[in-house]
Design brief:
- By secondary structure, this protein is α+β, with helices and mostly antiparallel strands.
- It has a domain of 201 residues: archaeoglobus fulgidus dsm 4304 superfamily (archaeoglobus fulgidus dsm 4304 fold, 2-Layer Sandwich).
- The protein is built from six helices and eight strands; from the N terminus they run αβββαβαββββααα.
- The chain has an eight-stranded mixed sheet with strand order 3-2-1-4-5-8-7-6, sandwiched between helices.
- Helix 2 runs parallel beside helix 3.
- The longest helix has 15 residues.
- The radius of gyration is 17 Å and the shape is globular.
- The chain starts with 7 loop residues before the first helix and ends in a 51-residue tail after the last helix.
Length: 289
């Protein structure tokens, strides 16, 4: 039913329709959850918003706990330049193709993009889930539109991210003393459940394991490596999950040109998340358990 529009006007219309949907909420299985992750990277060193046909390397992975159990990787091309609120034009079809190549379907998919935190309440993580008919969770460095105070400093601390009184996600500090992640409600997954999923697969690292592994596989394909992690990736990628400075992961391998408002960095026009913190009351999910 859902697809990938080719123009900004068409995408905005689809996003409005997606935001109005009320699909049945996802209920996690009573067995070990198979969590997927997907990620796109672009050539190093490019600047500006990019353009149609930019080379793109995408990876999707499946994980049971800490163990990867399947992956798929593609060399593809961007569908459009980056434009705020229209990331699906650039990367939606690329992620769609790579996830469909997985050897099995995950129970839930982590996406390096926002969900309900979007001007039209339907970011790429939500849109991708609708197209694939998969429950999805968005995970990014910062919110796109939502506002919320920074959480407490301990591992597992949360605070709500809100738009017009609606909780669309949470800040989640996956590791004490490290910058929190923005975790987003997306397709069939509410904000509270989204936090539970990310907690389930973070294992003491900043970035949840499925996204970390998908990022590694995509960059390996881009750099023509055979799975060996370079010193640069150790400094800015994998080691970025345990940074000496909170912002180190935002400078991943110089990939700010990736234009994913998430784990690959942000366009400069985005306001730093710690400047958004005055606009909503803190709320810790741990206290509700």
């Amino acid at each position: 039913m859902w697809s990938w529009p080719r123009t900004g006007a068409e995408l905005a219309e689809v996003q409005g329709a997606l935001a109005a949907q009320a699909p049945a909420p996802w209920i996690p299985p009573h067995r070990e959850t198979v969590v997927g992750g997907c990620f796109v990277c672009f050539p190093r060193g490019h600047t500006g918003p990019g353009g149609v046909g930019d080379p793109a390397w995408a990876a999707a992975v499946l994980m049971r706990g800490k163990r990867p159990v399947g992956h798929h990787v593609t060399a593809d091309a961007a569908g459009a330049p980056y434009e705020q609120g229209l990331l699906a034009l650039r990367m939606g079809a690329v992620l769609d193709r790579v996830v469909r190549g997985l050897p099995a379907r995950p129970d839930v998919l982590l996406v390096d993009a926002t969900g309900r935190d979007h001007p039209r309440r339907a970011g790429l993580a939500l849109h991708l889930g609708a197209v694939l008919d998969l429950p999805t969770v968005g995970v990014t460095h910062r919110p796109l539109v939502a506002l919320g105070e920074m959480p407490a400093v301990h591992t597992g601390a949360t605070s709500p991210l809100m738009i017009d009184g609606e909780v669309v996600g949470f800040w989640l500090r996956t590791r004490a003393g490290v910058r929190p992640l923005a975790v987003h409600a997306a397709w069939r997954v509410d904000a509270v459940t989204a936090v539970d999923v990310v907690r389930l697969c973070s294992f003491g690292r900043r970035t949840p394991a499925p996204l970390r592994e998908a990022r590694r596989v995509a960059r390996t394909a881009r750099d023509g490596r055979s799975g060996r992690t370079s010193a640069l990736d150790r400094a800015h990628g994998e080691a970025g999950d345990e940074p000496a400075e909170e912002e180190s992961e935002d400078q991943c391998d110089g990939d700010r040109d990736d234009h994913v408002r998430g784990l690959e960095g942000l366009p400069e026009e985005h306001v730093a998340a710690d400047e958004l913190g005055r606009h909503a009351r803190a709320h810790d999910l741990l206290g509700r358990r």
